[in-house]
């Protein structure tokens, strides 16, 4: 085999290994799926290039073209997820998938239509692909450069710089193959580009916590072993069926399906384990809070009942013990309120009543125990003459407690926590601002997603719960954050007609 064929085969193995690592994080990171699909598309292109060198045949060229086309939208998707702009630019992303998906289907259609194959292999088709992909890729690299300039933390800057370098090598050298198809006399360096760009992306994924955590060496070894088995299987098929193109296609397709099935099984097992851990963490936090809320009334009930039992055993009358009977009744009613509150917490069904937001803030902050947070300065900036809201005290108090707790946890070395209220557009605005660690672009984009958390002991339900509570009141919630400069969460609630006296 030629050097070009060996380079393509080596790049194919590395890309399959990285795709396996990315598949492990599908569902846990928005970058997992696009990176996995990008690696699969590029490994398909490298394998088709190897097959073209080793066995020939126009079909492999069409498969390589299809893989090249699908690498453009997946690269855009991955970069948008990395810089935290995936949702804001979703229309551009989906439009790119649609356009390049149609072109990729046309390429595959050339396998059964010689006329369509000639069109796909034509200079005009290659020129159209270049014209469509160039502005998208340039814009993507512009977003990465902008992200690099605005980030303050050295780890994120190193992550972005390495990723920018790896993708630049990959795209630039892969573009030589497209230029060669246009009839220009340039060396085809696409395989070398993927081989050179791969290590930079792998370092970002493995050691710079691209997916929010450092992937273990076990994952890396498993993915590498699986990719090597796949590549050796491909080589065996090519050696046995070198002259039979139909058997080559069937054999390589079967190996690919087997690799995907094995990877899928591993991913499902890993994901199921993570989901069980998340459910246990969530259940633990919920149970701990419920136990705390039930402990006091149960203790009061027990004390009053034991006292009355002792009095009864001594033969003393209960005529002067009416306050204990009232205490028993009060605590039973309190337990009933706690149970009803937790039922409403699960369903997020507010019982609306006129509510003074300033009084709510004062009440919540007085129960936080700031003595346990050394170095944190509390500031209250509460607007006077604030309109009343139609709200549920328990739900909004729990939401505010979540925000204050998050702010305190974001300032382990101290800082300033500011809670503000103000009137805006005939509504009430409540904001919680900290001067803590802040969030990067990817965390900001997913902050309100269910079960998303960057804490090792977190359930990922705090901000998601806050959003549901505010929306159940007909309001809106917004978040602004910058790494190293803190976070502000703003709740906008509609005001009722009555004013606070």
TrEMBL record:
Transmembrane regions listed in the UniProt entry: 6-24, 60-84, 91-112, 124-148, 160-183, 189-208, 220-241, 247-267
SMART domains found in the cross-reference section: HATPase_c, HisKA
UniProt-listed PROSITE patterns: HIS_KIN
Matching InterPro entries: BphY/WalK/GraS-like, HATPase_C_sf, HATPase_dom, His_kinase_dom, HisK_dim/P_dom, HisK_dim/P_sf, Sig_transdc_His_kin-like_C
Keywords assigned by UniProt, alphabetized: ATP-binding, Kinase, Membrane, Nucleotide-binding, Phosphoprotein, Transferase, Transmembrane, Transmembrane helix, Two-component regulatory system
One Gene Ontology MF term: ATP binding
Catalytic activity: ATP + protein L-histidine = ADP + protein N-phospho-L-histidine
The protein's Enzyme Commission number: 2.7.13.3
Histidine kinase domain sequence ranges: 289-497
Swiss-Prot/TrEMBL GO biological process terms: osmosensory signaling via phosphorelay pathway
Superkingdom, taxonomy of origin: Bacteria
Name the record gives this protein: histidine kinase
Lineage summary: Bacteria, Pseudomonadati, Myxococcota, Myxococcia, Myxococcales
């Amino acid at each position: 085999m030629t050097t070009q064929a060996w380079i393509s085969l080596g790049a194919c193995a590395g890309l399959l290994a990285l795709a396996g690592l990315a598949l492990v994080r599908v569902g846990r990171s928005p970058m997992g799926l696009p990176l996995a699909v990008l690696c699969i598309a590029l490994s398909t292109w490298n394998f088709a290039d190897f097959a073209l060198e080793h066995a020939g045949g126009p079909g492999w060229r069409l498969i390589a073209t299809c893989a090249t086309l699908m690498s453009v939208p997946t690269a855009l998707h991955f970069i948008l997820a990395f810089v935290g702009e995936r949702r804001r630019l979703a229309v551009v992303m989906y439009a790119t998938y649609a356009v390049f998906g149609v072109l990729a289907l046309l390429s595959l259609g050339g396998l059964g239509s010689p006329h369509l194959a000639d069109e796909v292999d034509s200079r005009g088709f290659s020129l159209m692909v270049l014209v469509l992909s160039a502005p998208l890729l340039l814009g993507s690299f512009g977003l990465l450069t902008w992200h690099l300039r605005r980030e303050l933390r050295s780890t994120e800057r190193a992550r972005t710089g390495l990723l920018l370098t790896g993708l630049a090598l990959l795209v630039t050298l892969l573009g030589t193959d497209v230029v060669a198809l246009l009839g220009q006399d340039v060396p085809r360096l696409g395989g070398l580009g993927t081989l050179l760009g791969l290590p930079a992306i792998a370092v970002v994924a493995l050691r710079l916590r691209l997916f929010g955590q450092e992937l273990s060496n076990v994952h890396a070894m498993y993915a590498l072993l699986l990719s090597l088995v796949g590549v050796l299987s491909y080589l065996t098929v090519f050696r046995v069926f070198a002259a039979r193109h139909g058997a080559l296609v069937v054999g390589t397709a079967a190996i690919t399906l087997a690799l995907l099935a094995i990877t899928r099984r591993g991913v499902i097992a890993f994901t199921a384990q993570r989901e069980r851990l998340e459910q246990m963490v969530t259940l633990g936090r919920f149970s701990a809070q419920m136990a705390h809320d039930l402990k006091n009334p149960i203790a009061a009930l027990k004390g009053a009942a034991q006292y009355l039992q002792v009095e009864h055993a001594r033969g003393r009358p209960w005529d002067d013990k009416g306050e204990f009977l009232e205490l028993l009744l009060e605590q039973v009613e309190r337990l009933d309120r706690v149970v009803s509150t937790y039922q409403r917490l699960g369903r997020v069904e507010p019982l609306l009543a006129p509510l003074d937001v300033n009084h709510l803030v004062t009440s919540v902050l007085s129960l936080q125990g700031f003595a346990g947070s050394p170095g944190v300065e509390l500031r209250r900036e509460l607007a006077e003459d604030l309109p009343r809201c139609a709200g549920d005290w328990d739900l909004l108090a729990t939401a505010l407690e979540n925000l204050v707790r998050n702010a305190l946890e974001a300032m382990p070395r101290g800082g300033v926590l500011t809670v503000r209220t103000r009137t805006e557009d005939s509504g009430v605005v409540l904001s919680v601002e900290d001067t803590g660690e802040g969030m990067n672009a990817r965390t900001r984009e997913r902050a309100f997603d269910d079960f998303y958390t960057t804490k090792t002991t977190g359930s990922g339900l705090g901000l998601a719960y806050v959003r549901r509570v505010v929306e159940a009141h007909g309001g809106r919630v917004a978040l602004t954050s910058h790494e190293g400069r803190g976070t502000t969460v703003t709740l906008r609630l509609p005001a009722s007609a009555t004013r606070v006296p």
